[in-house]
User: Fold these one by one.
Assistant:
Number 1:
Amino acid sequence: MSAEPTPSGTPAPGAPPSSAAPTTPTESTPSSPAGRPSRSRVPLPTLRPPTGPPRKPTDARRANALAGRINRGGDGPCYGLVTDDGRQYALHGTGKGTFAVGTTVRVTIGPADPAADCGPGIPATIVDISPVV
């Protein structure tokens, strides 16, 4: 074999003839299976940017459910609770357990007992209280 390059017009030995150029497929693109709609080429709609913050809260939250830290604790029946947003509650509940100051709790509250005075804060009665672990 010679080390000379072959001219660009003549094929190299063992190469397929130049008439074997790539061809385009003659079959049409496959259609959607029977019973299924074909995919649309129309772009999907998009949402516009919001014009401002929502007017009402978007998360459903029970009005009688609180979470916060005990700031006046002990074995009851009065407890103090401060929520993350700084609201202070004066909670009353007989036989609800002992909670040390600083304990994070989840509380379900009810209407305040007018006969109970548990100190400063929004008065409420404890329906259920449990520590958050």
Number 2:
Amino acid sequence: MGCVLIALGLFLLPYIDTNFAESESRDIKRLFTYVCIIGFSLTTFFALFLFTKITQPMQQLIQAANAIRKGNYGTRLSLVTSDEIGELGNTFNHMAAQLEDNIRNLNHEKEHLASVLRSMTDAVVTFDGEGKVILTNPPGEKIMQAWCDLDWAQQMGEGNESDSSASSSREVPEPLVPLFKAVMEQGRDQNSNVHVQQGVWSVQMAPLYADSVVRGAVAVLRDVTEEVRLEKMRRDFVANVSHEIRTPLSMMQGYSEALLDGMAASPEESEELIQVIHDESLRMGRLVKDLLDLARMEAGHTDMAVKEVDLVELLERVYRKFSVRSKEQDIHLRFECRQSSIELHQADEDRLEQVFTNLLDNAFRHTPSGKNVVISAEFLTDLRTPAAKVIVKDEGVGIPSSDLPFIFERFYKADKARVRGESVGTGLGLAIVKNIVDAHHGTINVNSVLGEGTEFILQFPVDSSK
């Protein structure tokens, strides 16, 4: 407005000078000057006032936007105007509230997902497109740390050393690399069993998509070592039972058919055939009895007549029982014990006799003539709990070190190349021994050197109720 008055005054100056006297012209010019100054001052004041009314809300808006950018999603504007700036402030507050709700919901979903992953017993590992780990749950982290410490060049063989060194720069463990490549290339789920050292892992790997593009993969790993071992034991058990039963059945069938066909030329031959049938029937009966006993023991239904047992007296009785057999096979059997009596307060005498009988039977069957079999017993008082220690040692052909971890499994026979007597075991004796010893809260260990002999070390607590 001041500018308009000044322009108007400049336009009217010639007209004032020509139509008014000099004194009147000077008064009019002075009036115009005052009016222009007052108009310019008023317009400047109103301009500053309007500028302040606009810039202050904009500054608040900028500060609120910066606060939200830094993560303070509870920031709100307190504008009470009803103009466009007030409407902008209300829109900003609504946007900030929606953003805060979305962020809160995302955090809740993230916490929920994290809780689910933490509660999973299976390992979950997520990889990005380059194979780097971006998310794991605790079991997955444990597996990744364990696998990262392995020397994959040695695990996979010397021929794969270059591949192992190349894969060390990636985060995907060496056993999962083929599955990861297949998922990234084909874009669909892959699954396989992975063998790492003595463990077996079932791996299910699925792709992660972003706008229809595979951006990574998630792997779920489950330890199925025990399941694979049990499945193998089941298959071996069925195969071994079938084999052990088939052999006597075949012999019984063959010899009985020979008798029916009249192939025996004399009563002596008939008696010999009948004796073979009888022996094989006894062998099959022992097998069935051992299987039933073992099944009851492993199911926790071991029938035990618990009472106080003198271990020295029991071992002496077993020693006398095998003395005759030792003379027949020319094997030197000895019993050594410094104590005259070792009392086990809670033990089953018949079951313990079965343990020592099975161990001595194995020792005699695998020890050549002229060698020694020794039974020794002692009372241990230097332990925290007093215990009785029994050692059954032979000078047989021994057991290979690779077979030692498995000798207490059912039907496992590590003596395929050993010297055998006339009687053949069922492969269940040591499994029964292990279950009886466990039922007495004892321990059994074996030491063996191939070609030198084997010793079984048994240890029973004097009072197994403690």
Number 3:
Amino acid sequence: MKLIDVGGRNNEIIPDGYQEWIIDTLDPLTLDLTCDGISSVFVNIKKASKLGIKMTVLENAGCSLLIWNNTTSPVEFDENYVVNKNSYLNLAYGECNTADIQRNSIVSLVDDGATAMIKSATLCKNKKNTSILCQSLAPHTTGNMENYSVVLEGGDYKMEATGKIHKGAYGSKSHQTSRALTFDDKQKATIIPKLLIDENDVEASHATSVGQIDENQMVYLQSRGLTQKQVLSLITIGYLMPIADFIENEELQTVLRREIESKVVESCSI
């Protein structure tokens, strides 16, 4: 495993293969990244205040990027990704921390065969406000989004997910799924799904749900000997755990599974 401390660095050519980057600075930071091969990057954010990411995925290249937020203070994210011909970007966000965030993320598919998969898993006990735009600017491009969140006491979660297909981007696809789970009426969750379509020959869909756990499911699990807090923890872990497998690295997956379980148990026990 290659460990790179990117605090204060930019203009990075992303190496092929797997690497782990640590961000550990409260100074405003912008990463200017280029991917010209096949790479997987785990970005572990231990400390940040304002973080910008500009990434270009060149023709016939691909990058899987998992941004894992471990901060304890508010962070503003401003992200812009460009995916070129016959290339892919797999982008994921893991948010199991207790700090506020504000995120604006734009993914642009600019040439034939460009694809993007965007995923997020959020444990929210505070204010998390995210806007994600995935736009098709050329024919035969594909953008998919999957957003899952669990909102606990004191949580204020907002997700604006937009799929946009521009005029001339025929044969393109835009699909999204967003789900927010709450456990009582005191928690606030808002999902705003948008499809902006300016072309006829396309595929597009969205599915959205916001609501509480089924009461019958809760009663059943408690009848099996589980406490209410244990049920809460198990369901929350089930919502968030898939993000741990986003990058194919067994050591990383094991670490993230343990971290998710630990943070969920801690959050749900309060």
